[in-house]
Backbone:
């Protein structure tokens, strides 16, 4: 049991490996990422190329004409568009999560560690922001700054940090009372060093878990924005946009809805399994 | 004179299924507790002392399993269904744990918790049960018992809660009380009061199994002592004999390593090197051999069996001579 | 005259209770009041008491983890002032601590070596890398661990081993005074003796003073030359070890000693200590009278109305009790 120097993360990885659902989810996610990168290259079509040779512009999937997922109402190949859309969705999700992670962890760790009035004010600020109508805020941003990809993930990330901050603050609050933090204080370490060296590394477990569970939320939110017409701009597409477009043609061309929905649902499911598995693996129940 | 033991444990083992395989917490323990006597079980972490009795009462965790036999007044406990064990718990045998705050349900009043057992099992009517509860609180030395019945656990102090826990355990008149480190979490002066309550209960004929690591507590209350190490019993003896002339090196070392309030002051305490083995560590031969000052090759190769000499038994290849005095 | 290592005068610490709108409420708990303490160079002093006596609060106040509401603390003659960075660092180098919870004392994300190294880096000016590593290993070896333990994480160690690492971290900078806050209470009995011996050896070898806080009177008797007894935040008795254990003067000290069960059936009294009734109830702040009076078997009217001051009862023996002279003959 005690082989020299095995860190908690390495230990967690070992435990995660035993969780079959989580590993299957990880593998599936990996496959989807690879597919999203390789897919567009495999196909002969490009993302905005209209295929005039089709009988009807919106044609079902067939192996014969190379439209493996069919085409959308404008005759564009769905296979390429789905994988390109997956790329965008994942990118937005990862970047937005990263932004909320950085801000949330810094905010929450500081508030939780300092406690007292500082903590009260910092978390009141979070509470107030929470109460603001989220959509309203995003809509105003998009109207003022136009619809750029950069702005999308900034807007999402800027709101996503709130819950992360709350969670990290809770963890920091309980860590602060641990003797090893007292020991660091008696060594004379300055506050920022203690937060960076002792608090943040010990909330990493919770942060990772929450981040994997945030990514699905972000993808859904981006999809929602796209559904409203506020998301990414043509010719770029995202899974959300594809679902929105596909929903319109649901009765006449069901594949336009089914394929991107299936990919979206798979990603969300895998992330949830992975998040659960990570939470179990990172739980320090060793003793 | 009834010579049938109240609790007769024979070759009991406790196993746990874990991700790393089957872990043996207790191995081949045999022990008898006669009516009205107090047996102390002494051990440190990993000794299995708590698991042994949790197994008897069917309170093991879901991945735990008891093998062997444990009889309470002739009735087998191992392998019984939850329903059958429920009937015995509280009425014939009861248990008190270390942390009184976890034993008492925080959102129920004391009176309700005390009378619960009596009324749910249909043993007494509500009014009689309440009277019994008042009497029980009185017998454990809680002042003003009538008004206490309506209080919540958090309104009482730690020592009072533990005394209430004992009252709860004894209210249906069991013959045997298993006390698992009942005073470890309490202040010394409060501990003395709680031990006094247990003494008083003993005067009335209660048999007690006192699980503890505190040799002082053992000296004050026990008739007989069983010392456990790494899931096995390594020595049993009458209390007086154990303290005066321990036979097992572990017992002797333990007695020598505890600082005293009276008597001469050695410069350094006698050390036992190393630490108790964890349950998943399998040590060949005698489990104490790595730490034993008189360990020989035989000790490291073969595990010693428990030599039963009636009142006195010891599991050691080279037990200390009986006339050895500290 | 050389100033003593640590001197505490009239120390008081309050805790705020309850929450206000945006900050601590106005109800206050007096955790410590009027506490005097002196620790000379190389001396081991024990602080004993039960829950609520304030012994941990005392340690925290001395270390700067709790803010005193009254009194002052002097380190080698200098009144502790947290604004003076340089001198604070000096003091921290000389004053270190070991806590009760061995696993909680170490950052679970850092190896044993990292934890010890952190102390070295924080309190001493950085030297040669190789020298630092050597000192970390030497510190681990000195507390009885293999040098190889430097790469182990706390969850791979036992309680006793973790506590040794904590001691190594505290002593790597060679402090003049080590505060041990219930340092052995959470350990197995057979391991306690090892750590007690270790502390004893370290203090003898380096002339290091100990401030040993514990509820275990037997260990205090073994390790400490002077003993201070606290009750509900006040000093009730202070004496050298021999004086306190052979002729305790305060009723609370006597009750405490009588209540400790000795591991010897011949000595063990099977009668409950009748000198203490019920349990610790906190008298409201501001109420006059001896704090122990509600529980004391010898209390008279004067005890309930007038707080007893600390009086001299012998050579280096102080007692806060109106009736100590009467119990002297007992």
Residues:
């Amino acid at each position: 049991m005690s082989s020299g120097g095995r860190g908690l993360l390495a230990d967690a990885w070992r435990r995660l490996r035993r969780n079959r659902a989580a590993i299957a989810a990880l593998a599936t996610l990996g496959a989807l990422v690879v597919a999203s990168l390789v897919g567009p290259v495999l196909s002969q079509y490009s993302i905005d190329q209209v295929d005039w040779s089709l009988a009807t512009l919106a044609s079902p999937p067939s192996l014969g004409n190379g439209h493996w997922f069919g085409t959308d109402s404008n005759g564009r190949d769905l296979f390429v568009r789905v994988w390109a859309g997956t790329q965008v969705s994942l990118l937005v999700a990862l970047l937005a999560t990263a932004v909320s992670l950085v801000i949330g962890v810094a905010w929450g760790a500081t508030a939780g560690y300092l406690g007292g009035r500082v903590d009260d004010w910092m978390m009141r600020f979070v509470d107030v922001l929470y109460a603001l109508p989220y959509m309203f805020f995003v809509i105003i941003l998009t109207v003022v700054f136009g619809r750029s990809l950069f702005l999308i993930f900034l807007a999402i990330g800027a709101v996503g940090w709130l819950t992360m901050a709350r969670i990290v603050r809770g963890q920091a609050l309980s860590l602060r009372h641990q003797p090893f933090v007292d020991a660091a204080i008696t060594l004379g370490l300055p506050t920022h060093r203690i937060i960076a060296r002792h608090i943040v590394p010990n909330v990493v477990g919770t942060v990772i878990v929450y981040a994997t569970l945030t990514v699905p939320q972000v993808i859904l939110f981006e999809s929602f924005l796209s559904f409203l017409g506020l998301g990414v701009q043509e010719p770029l597409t995202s899974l959300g946009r594809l679902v929105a477009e596909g929903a319109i043609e649901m009765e006449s061309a069901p594949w336009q809805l089914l394929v991107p929905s299936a990919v979206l649902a798979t990603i969300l499911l895998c992330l949830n399994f992975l998040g659960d598995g990570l939470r179990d693996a990172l739980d320090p129940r060793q003793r | 004179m009834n010579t049938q033991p109240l609790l007769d444990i024979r070759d009991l083992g406790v196993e746990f299924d874990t991700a790393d395989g089957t872990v043996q917490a207790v191995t081949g323990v045999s022990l008898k507790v006669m009516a009205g006597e107090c047996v102390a079980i002494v051990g440190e972490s990993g000794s299995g002392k708590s698991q042994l009795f949790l197994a008897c009462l069917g309170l093991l965790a879901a991945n735990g399993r008891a093998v062997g036999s444990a009889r309470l007044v002739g009735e087998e406990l191992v392998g019984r269904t939850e329903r059958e064990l429920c009937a015995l718990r509280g009425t014939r045998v009861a248990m008190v744990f270390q942390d009184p705050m976890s034993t008492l349900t925080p959102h129920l009043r004391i009176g309700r918790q005390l009378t619960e057992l009596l009324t749910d099992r249909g043993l007494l009517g509500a009014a009689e049960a309440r009277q019994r509860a008042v009497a029980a609180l009185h017998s454990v030395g809680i002042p003003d018992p009538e008004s206490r019945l309506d209080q919540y656990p958090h309104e009482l102090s730690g020592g009072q809660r533990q005394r209430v826990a004992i009252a709860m355990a004894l209210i249906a008149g069991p013959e045997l009380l298993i006390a698992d480190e009942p005073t470890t979490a309490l202040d010394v002066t409060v501990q003395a009061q709680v031990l006094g309550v247990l003494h008083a209960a003993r005067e009335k004929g209660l048999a007690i199994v006192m699980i503890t690591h505190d040799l002082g507590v053992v000296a004050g209350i026990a008739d007989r002592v069983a010392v456990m190490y790494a899931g096995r019993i390594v020595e049993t003896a009458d209390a007086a004999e154990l303290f005066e002339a321990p036979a097992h090196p572990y017992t002797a070392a333990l007695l020598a390593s505890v600082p005293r309030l009276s008597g001469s002051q050695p410069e350094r305490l006698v050390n036992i090197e190393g630490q108790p083995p964890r349950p998943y560590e399998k040590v060949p031969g005698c489990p104490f051999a790595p730490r034993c000052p008189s360990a020989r090759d035989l000790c490291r190769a073969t595990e010693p069996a428990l030599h039963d000499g009636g009142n006195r038994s010891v599991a050691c290849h080279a037990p200390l001579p009986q006339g050895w005095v500290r | 005259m050389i100033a003593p290592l640590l001197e505490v005068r009239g120390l008081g610490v309050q805790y705020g209770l309850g929450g206000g709108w945006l900050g601590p409420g106005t109800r206050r708990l007096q955790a410590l009041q009027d506490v005097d303490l002196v620790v000379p160079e190389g001396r081991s002093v024990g602080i004993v008491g039960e829950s609520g006596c304030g012994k941990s609060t005392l340690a925290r106040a001395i270390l700067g983890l709790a803010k005193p509401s009254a009194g002052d603390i002097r380190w080698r003659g200098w009144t502790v002032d947290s604004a003076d960075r340089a001198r604070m660092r000096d003091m921290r180098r000389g004053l270190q601590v070991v806590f009760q919870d061995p696993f909680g004392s170490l950052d679970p994300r850092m190896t044993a070596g990292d934890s010890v190294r952190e102390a070295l880096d924080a309190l001493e000016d950085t030297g040669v890398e190789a020298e630092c590593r050597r000192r970390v290993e030497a510190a681990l070896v000195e507390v009885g661990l293999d040098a190889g333990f430097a790469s182990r994480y706390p969850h791979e160690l036992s309680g006793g081993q973790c506590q040794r690492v904590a001691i190594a971290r505290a002593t790597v900078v060679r402090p003049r005074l080590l505060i041990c806050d219930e340092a052995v209470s959470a350990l197995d009995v057979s391991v306690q003796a090892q750590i007690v011996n270790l502390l004893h050896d370290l203090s003898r070898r380096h002339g290091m003073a100990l401030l040993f806080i514990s509820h275990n009177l037997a260990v205090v008797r073994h390790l400490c030359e002077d003993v201070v007894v606290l009750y509900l935040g006040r000093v009730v008795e202070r004496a050298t070890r021999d004086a306190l254990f052979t002729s305790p003067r305060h009723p609370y000290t006597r009750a405490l000693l009588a209540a400790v069960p000795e591991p010897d059936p011949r000595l063990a009294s099977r009668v409950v200590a009748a000198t203490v009734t019920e349990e610790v109830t906190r008298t409201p702040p501001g109420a006059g009278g001896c704090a122990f009076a509600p529980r004391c078997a010898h209390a008279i009217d004067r005890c309930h109305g007038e707080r007893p001051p600390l009086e001299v009862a012998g050579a280096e023996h102080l007692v806060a009790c109106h009736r100590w002279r009467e119990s002297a003959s007992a």
